Amino acid sequence: MNIELLSQYLVAGITYGTIYAIVAIGFNIIYNATGIINFAQGEFVMLGGMIAVSLHTFMPLPAAIVAAVLAAMIIGALIEIIFIRWLVSPSVLRMIIITIGISIFVREAALHVWGEAVRALPYFTGSEVTVISFGNVHISPQVLWVTGIAAIIVALLTFFFNYTLLGRQMRACSSNRDAARLCGINAKNMVTLSFVLSAGIGALAGCVVSPITYVQYDSGTGLAIKGFTVAILGGLGNSTAAIGAGLILGILESLCVMVLPTAFKDVVSISVLLLILFVRPSGIFGSVEASRLKEF
Amino acid sequence: MKAVKILAVLLFSCLILAAPALAKDTIKIGAILAVTGPASFLGAPEAKTLEMLVEDINKKGGIKGMKVELIIKDSGASPEKALSFAKQLIEEDKVLAIIGPSTSGETMKIKSVAEEAKAILISCAAAEVIVNPVAKYVFKTPQMDKHAVIRIFEQMKVMKLAKAGVLSSNTGFGKAGKEQIEKLAAEHGVQVVASEAYDSKATDLTAEVTKVKAAGAEAIINWSIEPAQAIVIKNARQLGFKGPIFQSHGFGNIKYVEAAGEAAEGVIFPAGRLLIADVLPKNHPQKALLTKYKKDYESKFKEEASTFGGHAYDAMLILTKAIEKAGKADKEAVRNAIEGLTGLVGTAGTFNFSAQDHNGLDINAFEMLTVKKGKFELLATPAKKEGASKKK
Question: What global pTM score does this model have?
Answer without folding.
Answer: 0.80
